[in-house]
């Protein structure tokens, strides 16, 4: 669950960013540059805009962001754009442009960009308020002045898209924490807000464990107690302070866009460059080695625990245990060709179709078959946290020695530990490093590839 309320905007905000760049380029026609001068200015403009906008968080506008904060971001970006423009004309001093023209350009372009930003922001508010879409279902645990303040914020600000469902007071003898957790699952709650002042340490731990294992965002209304976590985010809803227990680096529109762009580029390269000619060859060879289809498909759990069909080149004979039993070393079900396909990871290549379709990512926690997910969810604490992002063809656990079948409880616990680290510390550079390590593993071989 995207805690910043950007779950539906990973396409919208990059699109707005593209429109901003288009506005900047069109307004640059006011300078009446020559073709060569325009060619110099535009790359500099795009580069400086991307660096400064990411640096100040220009596109980090969420459903609860006050209008005054948006205007503040616009003013900051206007100043930085002005500095960048003067820097350009200082470097290329042979381009004759007066200072008033630069000011006119900045004011005009930023004016259009601000107008676009406010129009999109307000249209999304109307979309939530009038159509009741793009909503987040929330409950509050605790009853005091702060929780009443938060409840009023939810109820009297429908444009923010928070759908208040219920308020629980654990101080009452008739309410138990177990009832709250059952209600949260039954009502498909997205976020739980807790007043720390009214919770015992044991109850806080139980709620944290419950939220992690059921993919529900847990947030706290702070008091004088301390809450320790690696990834805390402090926000204001109106005038009510909110602490988010876990924030994910990937849960910003620009990061979602960059990761999706990386997935599309890699998947298209593999599909067009390798699968386009390899698939027809294997379509002839695989049925000759054992009766059955070219592809093996299996239901697995993806982001938010949703099921999808994961595709592979078939490497085993048709068997009744395919959806329950993992492949093991010297597995009698594996064909002779299948051993080669699995050892070289060629059998995994059709999953790039899953990546292109959006069910998977190139890098992420490896998806498990549905029966194993249900089993590990009960056995391994925080196992479901790995489902906060899309599953991957390769992952941090796989390049860290935990590829292949799960032979011991230590294997799955270590895999989950690496997966959670990836989820909480993701970056594009980390993805690229994992892809590079995977490539070298395929070239030099992996003893756990069977």
TrEMBL record:
Top-level division of the source organism's lineage: Bacteria
Principal localisation: membrane
Keywords, sorted A to Z: Membrane, Transferase, Transmembrane, Transmembrane helix
Cellular localisation: Membrane
Short name of any one Pfam family annotated for the protein: CoA_binding_3
Residue ranges constituting the Bacterial sugar transferase domain according to the UniProt record: 259-443
Family annotation (PANTHER family): COLANIC BIOSYNTHESIS UDP-GLUCOSE LIPID CARRIER TRANSFERASE (PTHR30576), UNDECAPRENYL-PHOSPHATE N-ACETYLGALACTOSAMINYL 1-PHOSPHATE TRANSFERASE-RELATED (PTHR30576:SF0)
Protein name: Colanic acid biosynthesis UDP-glucose lipid carrier transferase
Top-level taxonomy: Bacteria, Pseudomonadati, Bacteroidota, Flavobacteriia, Flavobacteriales
């Amino acid at each position: 669950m995207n805690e910043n309320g950007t779950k539906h905007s990973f396409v919208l905000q990059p699109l707005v960013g593209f429109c901003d760049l288009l506005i900047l380029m069109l307004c640059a026609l006011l300078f009446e540059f020559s073709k060569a001068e325009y060619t110099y200015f535009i790359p500099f403009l795009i580069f400086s805009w991307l660096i400064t906008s990411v640096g100040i968080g220009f596109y980090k506008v969420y459903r609860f962001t006050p209008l005054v904060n948006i205007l503040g971001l616009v003013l900051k970006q206007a100043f930085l754009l002005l500095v960048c423009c003067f820097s350009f004309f200082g470097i290329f001093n042979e381009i004759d442009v007066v200072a008033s023209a630069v000011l006119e350009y900045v004011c005009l372009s930023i004016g259009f960009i601000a107008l676009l930003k406010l129009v999109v922001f307000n249209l999304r508010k109307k979309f939530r308020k009038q159509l009741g879409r793009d909503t987040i279902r929330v409950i509050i645990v605790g009853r005091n002045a702060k929780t009443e303040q938060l409840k009023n914020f939810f109820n009297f600000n429908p444009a923010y898209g928070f759908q208040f469902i219920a308020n629980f007071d654990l101080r009452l003898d008739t309410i138990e924490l177990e009832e709250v957790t059952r209600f949260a699952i039954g009502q498909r709650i997205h976020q739980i807000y807790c007043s720390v002042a009214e919770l015992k340490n044991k109850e806080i731990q139980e709620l944290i464990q419950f939220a992690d294992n059921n993919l529900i965002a847990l947030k706290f209304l702070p008091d004088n107690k301390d809450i320790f976590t690696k990834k805390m985010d402090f926000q204001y809803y109106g005038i009510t302070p909110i602490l988010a227990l876990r924030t994910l680096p990937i849960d910003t529109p620009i990061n979602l866009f960059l990761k999706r762009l990386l997935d599309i580029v890699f998947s298209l390269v593999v599909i067009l460059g390798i699968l386009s000619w390899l698939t027809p060859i294997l379509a002839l060879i695989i049925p000759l080695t054992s009766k059955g289809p070219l592809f093996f498909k299996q239901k697995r759990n993806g982001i938010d625990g949703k099921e999808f069909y994961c595709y592979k080149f078939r490497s085993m004979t048709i068997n009744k245990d395919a959806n329950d039993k993992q492949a093991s070393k010297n597995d009698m079900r594996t064909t002779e060709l299948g051993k080669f396909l699995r050892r070289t990871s060629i059998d995994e290549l059709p999953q790039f179709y899953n990546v292109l379709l959006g069910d998977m990512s190139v890098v992420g926690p490896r998806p498990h078959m549905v029966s194993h997910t249900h089993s590990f969810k009960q056995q391994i604490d925080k196992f479901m946290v790995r489902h906060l992002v899309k599953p991957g063809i390769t992952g941090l656990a796989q390049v860290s020695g935990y590829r292949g079948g799960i032979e011991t409880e230590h294997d799955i616990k270590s895999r989950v530990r690496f997966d959670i680290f990836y989820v909480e510390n993701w970056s594009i550079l980390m993805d690229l490093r994992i892809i590079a390590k995977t490539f070298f593993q395929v070239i030099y071989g992996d003893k756990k590839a069977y």
